[in-house]
Design a protein that fits this description.
- This protein is of the alpha+beta class and 385 residues long.
- It folds into three domains: 2-115, Butyryl-Coa Dehydrogenase, subunit A, domain 1, CATH 1.10.540.10; 117-221, Butyryl-CoA Dehydrogenase, subunit A, domain 2 (Beta Barrel), CATH 2.40.110.10; 228-378, Butyryl-CoA Dehydrogenase, subunit A, domain 3 (Up-down Bundle).
- It has helices at 3-28, 34-42, 61-74, 76-94, 98-109, 227-264, 278-306, 312-343, 348-356, 358-361, 366-378, and strands at residues 115-118, 134-139, 142-152, 160-166, 177-183, 189-191, 206-216, 220-221.
- Helix 1 packs parallel to helix 3 (61-74) and helix 6 runs parallel beside helix 8 (312-343).
- The longest helix has 38 residues, at 227-264.
- It starts with a helix and ends in a 7-residue tail after the last helix.
- The model has no long low-confidence stretch (mean pLDDT 95).
- Flavin-adenine dinucleotide (FAD) is lined by residues 84, 117-120, 125-126, 128, 151-153, 197, 200, 203, 205, 358, 361-363, 365, 367-368.
């Protein structure tokens, strides 16, 4: 058994026990899925993508996708919450200083520190790579950060936030920005109301205002102004794979629901079973193929990116866009296959439908990804004319 197979097996066990037990309540109560996330941390998975030299498991995009699929099958909120922790861990690790390795990465690997991303803003929306949050150099050892963030997954629960800001030089061009790590207990953070989404109700994606928040210079990630490198080399690949895996898990879960329902639904008037109706068998076959071909693309894209292959960029963009289409199609069609019992309020499929619908709107969004994939194929830079 490979190390990855064994790790995914451990995640499936946590998903089958803790997540399966809590998922409905997490959704109903819009409750952050703490038990599942802590189980992942205490199971040694907090440092999934943290390099081994900092105590982590040192795994990459393929592992992240498979772990998020296993989580998303039971609870999409847990999949995205854990996924965002992993994306932020990868951002911290990409150019970590000895201080950041000792203070953050080792704690993440030991399951003692949970981190997340605060990139999106009300002004730039889906174009999260154009922040307006200001970074002002206050002294040789500190900055002040001011601005507004929205949709901060794990908001109010994480120990630290990877916050994107414009570069501190006043004339820096758009896209020339910096990321800093802001501690949860920093002075000047104020959280918006609790998250009350249509779906993904446990992921606590909240608004955050930062008012003159003091940040030590040693918590600057990389160099000032080199964030476009982070966005395309680290944030986008890990972000895309966390989302692709999670929503693939939602699609796979819906397929399981259809298979189980068609296997057991029997008519009183004829004794016939739903699963014996040829047109429905045909439809189930199409859905199975949709999930399988999307899964193959997702994991090939992850491997291509892990190995720095030439088609990695187009593949990653397309993988998340394809998953978004797949999950919406599959859950919607499974609702039809499962009939009125699925349409009733509070069915598992109802939750999957609401959760899956977020896949298209979480940035990078589907239309933007299709354009990026085309530009990557043409050999053009992703941003620009
Ligand atoms: C459940 C959930 C979790 C999230 N978690 C995080 C997180 O952890 N961290 C974080 O930083 N953000 C997060 N986000 C924010 C997310 O990534 C997007 O930034 C946000 O959903 C954009 O919303 P908006 O209304 O501002 O979109 P808008 O920017 O107003 O866009 C509306 C639509 O227009 C499309 N559009 C806009 N411009 C173009 C264009 N040039 N070409 C083609 N189409 C275009 C968009 O694709 C979108 O479909 C999360 C969002 C959700 C829903």
């Amino acid at each position: 058994m490979t190390e990855l197979t064994s790790i995914v097996g451990r995640v499936r066990e946590i998903a089958r026990t803790v997540l399966a037990r809590d998922a409905a309540a997490v959704d109903e109560q819009a409750r952050w899925p703490e038990a599942g996330l802590r189980a992942l941390q205490s199971g040694g998975l907090g440092g999934l993508v943290v390099p081994a030299r900092s105590g982590g498991l040192g795994l990459g995009l393929l592992a992240l996708g498979q772990v998020c699929e296993a989580l998303g099958r039971e609870c999409a909120s847990t999949g995205i919450s854990f996924g965002m922790h992993c994306v932020a861990s990868a951002v911290i690790a990409a150019k970590a200083t000895p201080h950041q390795r000792g203070r953050y990465l080792e704690a993440i690997s030991a399951g003692r520190h949970f981190t997340t991303l605060a990139l999106s803003e009300p002004g730039s929306g889906a174009h999260f790579y154009y922040p307006e949050t200001r970074l002002v150099a206050e002294s040789p050892t500190s900055y002040r950060v001011s601005g507004k963030k929205v949709f901060v997954t794990n908001g109010g629960h994480a120990d630290s936030y990877v916050v994107s800001t414009v570069a501190s030089e006043p004339d820096a061009p758009p896209g020339h920005f910096s990321c800093v790590l802001v501690a949860a207990d920093a002075v000047g953070l104020s959280w918006g109301p609790p998250w009350d989404g249509m779906g993904m109700r446990g992921n606590s994606s909240r608004a955050l205002e930062l008012r003159d928040v003091p940040v030590p210079r040693q918590d600057l990630l990389g160099e000032e102004g080199d964030q476009i490198w982070y966005v395309f080399e680290v944030v986008a690949p890990y972000f895309l794979m966390a989302m692709a895996g999670t929503y693939l898990g939602v699609a796979a879960s819906a397929l399981d629901e259809a298979t189980a329902h068609m296997g057991k639904r029997t008519y009183g008037h004829s004794g016939g079973r739903l699963g014996h109706v040829p047109v429905l068998q045909h439809r189930l076959g199409e859905l199975w193929a949709d999930v399988q071909r999307t899964r193959r693309l997702v994991y090939w894209a992850a491997s291509e990116a892990d190995e720095h292959g030439p088609e990695a960029l187009a593949a990653l963009c397309s993988a998340k866009a394809e998953v978004a289409g797949c999950v919406v199609r599959v859950v919607n069609d499974v609702m039809t296959l499962c009939g009125g019992s699925a349409y009733r309020d509070g069915s598992r499929l109802e939750r999957l439908l609401r959760d899956g619908r977020a896949a298209h709107v979480m940035a990078p969004t589907t239309d933007i990804l299709r354009t990026w994939a085309g530009r990557a194929v043409l050999g053009l830079p992703l941003l620009g004319d």
